[in-house]
Structures are given as structure tokens and as C-alpha cells.
């Protein structure tokens, strides 16, 4: 219902309601003096009855809404049925068009062919079922044999346990003295073995210490006598070439260099000493110190001849870095710098390691242990003599045989100052020496800084002092090793004597307990036999378990094949059923079309019926909605009437004796929903004075002292109108 129209109707009803309430109040006042109770009962009953009407209307509305929802669902279902029936009809029409004699014959032929396929698949299933049955029989037999083998194994294990217990009992029969003597002998033999091993270890330590002393003595003897001297002509030619590497200067340098037979010079000047022929590890820190100090002294002597005052240094940190670099970028990467297909320097590795250490690095490499005058050495058998000779040979080779494609770069790396091969940043050079797994020598030139610590733990370049300290330490180690060996030898003699004493004691006790020993021997034999039987049973058990597993695998494979054959048969049957259905559809095309047409027409009829039912339900819903709105309006007016009746009764019953005497007028302000209306009510005494004049205009309501004035009634009527206009609030309908 339109809200504006509803409000206008409510306003009109409000006036009528107010008038009716005044009339009811006057009638009730005329009938009894308890007007308040009578009026309230009447209006309250009206409120209750109108609310009951609202509840009934709401229930009717809800029922109508449910009917509409159900009808809508029926329409949707009927529409879906029409769509489905239409699709079925289209399919039936297409089937009818396809139902030619040729198509029927072709479909029938396909059915016959598929029947042959089904028969073949069925035969395959039957055959595979036989295979599964045979495999199951083999598996059952294997299971029985495995069970029997398991029982035999358990029995053998029990025999071993029994024999072990018997041996324990037999051994317990021996006297405690004999057991103690045997334990003493075992302990003495163990102590003697340990003492013997200690003596062997001590002797090895003495041998190693003696070798270290010999090596240190050899280093003392070598001292700094090995130097390489360059001719003035060579130095002049090299300086000219490094200052201006022209072809003419290169030719002049090559001419001077080739005149020096450096191999012969090495043979004459390198001091060979038999004490240097001790096998050493090139990565040993002591050997590393000797090699790097030796190489740096050779290079610094050459730099002095060249006229340079800045010297290279050697340190433990630089040696550690050299060993780490060579292992990571040559050994681990199988990088053969020379060899048959030599790869040359690992430049990527140099760049990576320079970034890692945050410094500049240059690398020289030499043949090292691979080719030199006295023959070929290996990393496993190299001696200190070989290593020193290799360093001497490499540095000399860099000076005298470095022409060709290298363009004297090795010599340049030795004689430059502050730069190497044109690269700046070599102001504090420290040398590290390392040998790769192929036997080639690597000379790593690092620029040491406070940040990279490569100059830390620097070695003294005074060979005499360092070698003498090395010799002193080696001699002290040798003396300590000899003293330890002496103590260990004494301990061994004592331990051997204890073994002899324990053996004598045990022999004496064994002679007095021969019978117990015989029993122990017999039980030990029985235990050995039981253990042999157990091992045989264990082997048989494992064999049967393996056979059982194999039989199980075969059975599983056969079952899988059977399932595959069954799946093939099911597929073939499904295809046959599909083809048979096609033949049936083509053969019965007329009947199927007629049925589809009838079903479609019925679905259309059902949709028409459902649509009509929906329209009727919607009409009923609209009626219920209108009745609910009217019932709610009536209930609202009943509430207004109850409120007005209460106020009228209050005015009629509120007069007192003082009011009648004063004959004044009281202004009563009534406020309803935000609007104030003023009603003037005359007192009973004033009404008496004007009774004669007003009797013709107002009806009598009983006791004159309780009579309301005309203005009061008019005011109350206006109050009812205001309540209707501004106090009405429409209830929201939900659906």
C-alpha cells in the first residue's frame, strides 16, 4: 500500500478515534463514578483484539509468501523439465533421421564384430585366471617351506642358546684361581702388546726426529751459499727491454740470454748434500718456511743486482694462502698447468681469489719436480733436496729461458717495483710457495696490507739463524724421543716378564684341573657344532624367504595381469552394450520419437499449469499484504484511543473542591510526537454557573462536578488528530 495514502487515512481515523474515546468516556462517567477503570478496560480490550487481528494477518501473509515460493519452485522445475524434454525430442528426431536401413545394417555388423572382441577378451580372462591359480599354488608351497625353515632356524637357535649355557656352566666349574690366572695372563698379554706397540711408535718417533735433525743440519749447511748471479750485459739488456719492449731490444736480450748455459751453471753452483735426501711433505709448515725463505732470498739477491732496494718478504700467512689457492683452483679442478694439453694459469681462479682476499695477486709457475737435471721426482717420494733444487731451477729458468710468447713476463715479475706485469698495487710483496698434485711449483706474489694480514707471522730471512733454530728444535725433539723410547723399552721388558709369570701360573692350575678343562673343551665343541647348524639353518631360511618373496611377486604380477584382462573385458562389454543400444535406438526410432514428443507436450502443459498457480499465489500474497497493513493501522489507532481515554479520565476525575471554588481555568499542555496542543478544561464550580447557558449545546454526562467543557473535548479531538498524523509508524512487511 502507498505510504502517503496510508498516512492520510490514518489522520482521518485519528479524528474519529478521538471523538469516540470522548463519547465512551462521557458514557462511562454517566454510568459510574469509577470512570478511569471503566474507560481503561474498554480501550485495553480494543488494543488486545486489534493486535490479535495483526497476528492473524501476519500469519496469513507468511502462508501466502510460502505458497508463492513453492509455486515459483514448481515453475522453475517445470521449465527445466521442458528444456530436458526438448533436448530429448531433438535427439529422437536426429535418431529418426539416422534410422536408415544402411545405418541399421552397419550398426548391426558392428555389434557382431564387437561380440567377437568380447568373446576373445573373456577367453583371455579365463586363461589368466588359470595362471593366477597356479601362481597362488606355488606361493602357498613356498610359504609352507618358509614356515618350516623358520621353525628349523628357531630350533637351531635354541640349540646354540643351550650349548652356550652349558659352556658357561662348564667354565664356571673351573676354579676361581684358574679363572683369575687366565684373566691375569690376558691382561699381561694385552699390556705387553701395548708396550710393544709403544716401543714401535717410540722408535718411529726417534727415526722421524733423527731425520728432522739431518734435514735441519742440511739446511744449516746450505745456508745462503746458493745464489744466482747475472752478467752486466744481461742486466743492461733486460733493463732496456723492460723500459722499451721493442723487437730490437727483445732480440738483443735473447742474444745475451742464450749465451748462458744455465743448466751447467746450476750443476756447478747448487750445493748438493746427502743430508738433504730426506722425504718430506711439501705442505708441512716447516718445509714451507724453508722453501719460501730460500726462494725470497734468491729473488732479493737478483733484485739487488738489478739495482732495486725494495725486497720481497715471506710469511706463514702467505704460504697458507698459496697452499689454499693451489688446492682449490688447481688440484680440486684437475687443472694441469703444463702437461700434454696444458691449460696455463687459472686466470678465473686468480681473479676470484684476489677478490676473496681483497688484494692484488700475481702468479709465476715452474716445472718444479717434473723435469730437472737429476731426474723426475714425485709428490709421494720427494725430498728436501728435490724441493730446493726445483725452486733454484725454476727461478733460474725464469731469467734465462723465458722468451717466445711469454715475452719475458717471469723476469718482469721479479724485477718490477710497485707494479707487476703493468698492474699497480704491489707495494708490499710477500711470496708464498706451493706444489700442485701434478708436481708443478706455484709462486704466488701477494700485496700484503693490514686488512688482509698476509704479512703476518713473517719469517726471518736470515737463513743461518732460522736454520740453526730449526736444528736446535729438531735435536731437542730427538733427545725427547730417545728418552721416551728408553722408558717404553723398559716398560716392555716388565710387561713381558709379567706375561711369563701369568703363563706359568695358568699352566700349573690347568694341570690340576684337567677334568674341568676336558669338560669345557667338549662343550665348546658342542657349541661350535650348534653354531654351524644354526648358520646352515639361517642360510636355508634366507633361501626360502627369498623363494617366498619371488613367489609372492609372481602372484602379484599374475593378479595384475588378470585385473588388466578383466578391465579389457569390461571395456569390450561396455562397447558392445553401447553398440547394441545404438541398434535398438535406430530400430525403434518411431516409438522413441513418439514418446519424446508426448513427454515434451506434457512438460509444456505442466509448465503452463505451474505458471498459472504462481500467478494465483501472487494475487493471494498481495491480498494478504493489504490485510496485514490494514490490521496494523487498526492496532495503532486502538493504542491511540487507549492513550486518549486515559487522559480524559484523568481530566474528569482530577477535579477537587478547591478547583470548584476557584472557577479558574488551567492550561494543560499535551505533547504528542514532538507537537504540543493546549486544552483548556473548566472546573466543576465554573460549569455550574454556566449550566443554564450551556445545557442546550452540550449533552449531560451525569454529575455536574465531573463535566468536561466543550473546549476540552475539542482539544482532545485535536490531540487524537495529531496522534494520527504524527504518531503513526508503518510496520515493515517482510517477505
Provide a descriptive summary of the structure in words.
- With 735 residues, the chain is of the alpha+beta class.
- It is 73% helix and 6% strand.
- It is built from 19 helices and eight strands.
- The protein has helices at residues 3-31, 35-98, 101-173, 176-222, 232-243, 247-258, 262-269, 285-306, 316-331, 347-357, 384-400, 409-415, 463-512, 514-587, 589-653, 657-662, 684-689, 691-694, 710-726, and strands at 313-314, 361-366, 418-420, 423-426, 429-435, 441-447, 665-672, 675-682.
- A hairpin with a 5-residue loop joins strand 5 (429-435) and strand 6 (441-447).
- The chain is extended.
- The two termini are 15 Å apart.
Strand order of the largest sheet: 1-5-6-2
Helix percent reads: over 70%
Mean pLDDT: 80
Number of strand elements: 8
How many individual helices? 19
User: How much β-strand is present in the residues?
Assistant: 5-15%
Give unreliable regions as ranges: 1-19, 663-735
In N-to-C order, the SSE pattern is HHHHHHHHEHHEHHEEEEHHHHEEHHH
If you compute it from the alpha carbons, what radius of gyration comes out, rounded to the nearest whole angstrom?
A: 63 Å
The major pleated sheet works out as:
4 strands, mixed
The assembly state of the depicted protein chains is single chain
Taken from the alpha-carbon principal axes, the silhouette is extended
Alpha carbon gap, first and last residue: 15 Å
Structural class: alpha+beta
Amino acid at each position: 500500500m502507498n505510504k502517503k495514502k496510508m498516512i492520510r487515512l490514518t489522520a482521518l481515523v485519528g479524528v474519529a478515534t478521538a471523538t469516540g474515546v470522548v463519547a465512551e468516556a462521557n458514557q462511562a462517567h454517566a454510568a459510574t463514578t469509577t470512570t478511569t477503570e471503566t474507560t481503561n478496560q474498554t480501550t485495553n480490550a480494543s488494543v488486545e483484539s486489534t493486535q490479535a487481528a495483526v497476528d492473524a494477518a501476519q500469519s496469513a501473509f507468511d502462508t501466502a509468501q510460502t505458497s508463492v515460493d513453492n509455486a515459483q519452485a514448481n515453475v522453475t522445475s517445470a521449465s527445466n523439465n521442458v528444456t530436458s524434454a526438448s533436448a530429448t525430442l531433438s535427439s529422437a528426431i536426429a535418431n529418426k533421421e539416422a534410422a536408415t536401413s544402411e545405418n541399421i545394417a552397419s550398426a548391426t555388423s558392428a555389434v557382431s564384430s564387437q561380440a567377437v572382441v568380447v568373446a576373445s577378451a573373456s577367453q583371455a580372462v579365463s586363461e589368466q585366471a588359470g595362471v593366477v591359480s597356479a601362481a597362488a599354488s606355488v606361493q602357498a608351497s613356498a610359504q609352507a617351506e618358509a614356515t618350516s625353515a623358520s621353525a628349523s632356524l628357531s630350533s637351531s637357535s635354541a640349540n646354540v642358546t643351550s650349548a652356550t649355557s652349558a659352556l658357561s656352566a662348564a667354565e664356571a666349574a673351573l676354579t676361581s684361581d684358574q679363572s683369575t690366572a687366565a684373566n691375569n695372563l690376558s691382561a699381561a698379554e694385552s699390556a705387553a702388546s701395548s708396550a710393544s706397540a709403544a716401543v714401535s711408535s717410540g722408535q718411529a718417533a726417534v727415526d722421524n726426529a733423527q731425520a728432522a735433525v739431518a734435514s735441519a743440519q742440511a739446511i744449516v749447511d746450505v745456508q745462503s751459499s746458493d745464489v744466482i748471479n747475472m752478467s752486466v750485459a744481461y742486466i743492461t739488456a733486460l733493463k732496456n727491454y723492460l723500459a722499451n719492449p721493442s723487437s730490437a731490444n727483445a732480440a738483443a736480450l735473447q742474444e745475451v740470454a742464450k749465451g748462458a748455459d744455465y743448466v751447467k751453471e746450476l750443476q756447478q753452483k747448487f750445493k748438493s748434500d746427502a743430508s738433504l735426501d730426506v722425504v718430506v711433505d711439501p705442505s708441512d709448515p716447516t718445509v714451507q718456511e724453508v722453501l719460501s725463505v730460500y726462494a725470497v732470498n734468491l729473488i732479493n739477491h737478483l733484485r739487488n743486482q738489478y739495482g732495486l732496494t725494495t725486497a720481497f718478504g715471506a710469511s706463514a700467512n702467505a704460504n697458507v694462502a698459496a697452499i689454499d689457492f693451489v688446492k682449490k683452483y688447481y688440484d680440486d679442478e684437475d687443472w694441469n698447468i703444463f702437461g700434454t694439453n696444458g691449460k696455463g694459469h687459472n686466470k678465473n681462479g686468480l681473479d676470484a681469489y684476489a677478490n676473496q682476499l681483497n688484494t692484488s695477486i700475481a702468479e709465476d709457475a715452474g716445472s718444479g719436480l717434473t723435469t730437472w737435471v737429476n731426474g723426475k721426482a714425485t709428490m709421494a717420494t720427494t725430498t728436501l733436496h728435490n724441493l730446493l733444487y726445483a725452486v733454484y731451477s725454476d727461478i733460474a729458468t725464469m731469467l734465462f729461458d723465458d722468451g717466445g710468447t711469454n715475452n719475458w713476463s717471469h723476469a718482469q715479475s721479479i724485477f718490477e717495483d710497485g707494479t707487476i706485469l703493468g698492474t699497480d698495487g704491489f707495494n708490499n710483496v710477500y711470496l708464498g710457495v706451493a706444489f700442485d698434485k701434478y708436481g708443478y711449483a706455484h709462486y704466488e706474489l701477494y700485496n700484503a696490507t693490514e686488512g688482509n694480514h698476509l704479512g703476518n707471522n713473517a719469517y726471518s730471512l736470515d737463513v743461518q739463524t732460522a736454520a740453526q733454530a730449526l736444528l736446535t728444535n729438531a735435536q731437542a725433539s730427538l733427545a725427547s724421543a730417545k728418552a721416551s723410547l728408553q722408558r717404553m723399552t723398559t716398560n716392555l721388558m716388565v710387561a713381558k716378564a709379567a706375561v711369563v709369570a701369568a703363563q706359568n701360573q695358568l699352566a700349573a692350575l690347568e694341570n690340576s684341573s684337567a677334568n674341568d678343562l676336558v669338560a669345557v673343551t667338549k662343550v665348546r665343541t658342542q657349541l661350535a657344532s650348534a653354531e654351524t647348524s644354526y648358520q646352515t639353518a639361517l642360510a636355508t631360511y634366507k633361501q626360502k624367504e627369498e623363494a617366498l618373496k619371488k613367489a609372492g611377486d609372481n602372484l602379484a604380477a599374475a593378479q595384475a595381469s588378470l585385473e588388466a584382462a578383466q578391465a579389457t573385458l569390461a571395456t569390450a562389454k561396455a562397447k558392445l552394450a553401447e553398440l547394441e543400444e545404438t541398434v535398438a535406438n535406430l530400430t525403434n526410432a518411431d516409438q522413441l520419437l513418439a514418446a519424446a514428443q508426448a513427454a515434451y507436450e506434457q512438460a509444456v502443459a505442466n509448465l503452463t499449469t505451474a505458471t498459472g498457480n504462481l500467478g494465483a499465489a501472487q494475487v493471494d500474497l498481495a491480498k494478504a499484504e493489504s490485510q496485514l497493513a490494514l490490521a496494523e493501522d487498526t492496532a495503532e489507532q486502538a493504542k491511540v484511543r487507549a492513550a486518549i481515554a486515559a487522559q480524559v479520565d484523568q481530566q474528569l476525575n482530577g477535579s477537587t473542591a478547591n478547583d470548584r471554588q476557584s472557577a479558574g481555568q488551567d492550561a494543560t499542555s499535551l505533547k504528542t510526537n514532538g507537537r504540543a496542543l493546549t486544552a483548556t478544561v473548566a472546573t466543576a464550580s465554573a460549569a455550574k454557573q454556566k449550566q443554564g447557558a450551556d445545557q442546550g449545546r452540550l449533552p449531560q454526562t451525569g454529575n455536574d462536578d465531573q463535566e468536561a467543557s466543550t473546549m476540552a473535548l475539542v482539544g482532545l479531538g485535536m490531540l487524537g488528530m495529531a496522534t494520527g498524523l504524527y504518531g503513526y509508524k508503518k510496520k515493515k512487511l517482510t517477505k
